[in-house]
Design goal:
132 residues, alpha/beta, Oxidized Rhodanese, domain 1, 7 helices, 5 strands, 48% helix, globular
Length: 132
């Protein structure tokens, strides 16, 4: 019985930690993201992997898989600048890796685009690297 209780306690703590982690990154709507892109006031980080990024990403997005080691050099100097991380869709938690990385680099305005590339591509154009 003690083992079962301990297992549930650990699972509950993990769930609370995940929920708390998500709370650190507010969501940004498609409309607000489009506006920030148009005004050149956002740095986007795509965590879907290089192959997916090559197939199409939100315009201007950084391929996190390729550039993770040099992310600090690719993000703006202004630590208050808007940084948005996204992955595949609303059910995908992978964005957290990039969002945490930006936060650890001192960025204060890190958000999550929950719709991801799947949601974006339903209504907006994606960008491919030249040569693809």
């Amino acid at each position: 019985m003690k083992i079962l209780f301990s297992t549930f306690a650990i699972a509950a703590l993990f769930a609370m930690n995940v929920a708390a982690e998500d709370a650190k990154f507010a969501n940004i709507t498609t409309a607000d993201l489009k506006k920030a892109i148009a005004e050149k006031k956002v740095t986007l980080i795509d965590v879907n992997g290089t192959d997916s990024w090559k197939e199409g990403h939100i315009p201007g997005a950084i391929d996190f898989e390729t550039h993770q080691a040099k992310l600090a050099k690719m993000l703006p100097a202004d630590k208050n600048a808007l940084v948005v991380a996204y992955c595949w869709n609303e059910g995908c938690p992978a964005y957290r890796t990039a969002a945490r990385a930006a936060k650890e680099l001192g960025f204060k305005n890190v958000k999550h685009y929950a719709a991801g590339i799947e949601g974006w591509s339903k209504t907006e154009k994606t960008e491919k690297p030249s040569g693809n």
